[in-house]
Inverse folding.
């Protein structure tokens, strides 16, 4: 379909399920404010200024992303643009777990949701040996981006957050069980007495 300015707009396409889906008039009007080349260029360079103006769906994966998503970029011929997450979802696409395009608050809210999921994973694995790369994999974020995004959202490094959670658990164990302090530290997941002492002092002052 061609808009009045002769810029091609992806109004219909063959979604993953095989059913043709058509944009509403309102969605078309919003999409027509940007040419497909402008949308592709914004997505290709990960431009956050375009978040909320459209989403990019990938036919080969069945997933749609924000323009700012840090995912590996697909081939141009496999890309479809939609005016909103709702339109992409109705066309049969799923939201990306990395950039969370369905969240209204933009990348900052996506990072907060990611950090909350990371903390939940840490809390469930306090007794295990946990590395930052393990947490990154659990929340579907590349290790190279995880620490930066987590700290921006949570205010701590991932390993500092893990130590704080273990200190919190150790404090609860000290109240509930009669055991030597170092035994409590190991039960809480600390690998050494010095790490336990540092984290516990930081928590209790």
């Amino acid at each position: 379909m061609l808009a009045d300015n002769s810029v091609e707009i992806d109004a219909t396409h063959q979604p993953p399920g095989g059913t043709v889906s058509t944009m509403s008039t309102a969605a078309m009007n919003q999409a027509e404010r940007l040419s497909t080349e402008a949308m592709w260029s914004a997505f290709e360079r990960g431009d956050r200024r375009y978040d909320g103006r459209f989403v990019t769906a990938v036919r080969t994966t069945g997933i749609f992303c924000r323009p700012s998503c840090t995912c590996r970029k697909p081939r141009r011929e496999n890309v479809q643009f939609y005016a909103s997450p709702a339109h992409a979802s109705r066309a049969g696409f799923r939201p990306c777990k990395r950039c969370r395009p369905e969240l209204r608050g933009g990348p900052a809210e996506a990072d907060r949701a990611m950090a909350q999921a990371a903390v939940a994973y840490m809390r469930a694995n306090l007794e295990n040996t946990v590395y930052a790369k393990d947490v990154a994999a659990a929340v579907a974020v590349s290790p190279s981006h995880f620490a930066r995004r987590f700290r921006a959202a949570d205010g701590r490094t991932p390993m500092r957050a893990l130590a704080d959670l273990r200190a919190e658990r150790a404090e609860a164990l000290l109240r509930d069980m009669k055991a030597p302090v170092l035994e409590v530290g190991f039960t809480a997941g600390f690998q050494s007495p010095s790490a336990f002492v540092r984290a516990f002092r930081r928590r209790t002052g």
The chain has two domains: 12-95, 106-204. The first strand starts at residue 12 and ends at 13. The CA atoms of residues 37 and 46 lie 14 Å apart.
